[in-house]
């Protein structure tokens, strides 16, 4: 069985957590890797950049805790800076080599743009 990489977009909304839960229950197979991807907005301030990166990592860790409730779940966390239109997400999915992208759809989702 081939190992698949599944990217789950990490956002601070309930629907993103629901999307992760759905992934764990419906897509995940033994040996698959879940990449928790958080993209934070571009800023020029180094202080704000560090704060956004830290908050993104903390949020991704809370998603990792959900994954830890499933036996043999392998996760990785990717927190990076990018645009608000989803282009960075596509680039990261290609870079990670993922076979699947899961994103929770909500009112302010990049998918509506």
From TrEMBL:
Pfam families linked: Usp
InterPro entries registered for this protein in UniProt: Rossmann-like_a/b/a_fold, UspA
Domain UspA: 4-112
Residue intervals passing through the bilayer: none
Name of the protein: UspA domain-containing protein
Species in which this protein is naturally found: Capsicum annuum (Capsicum pepper)
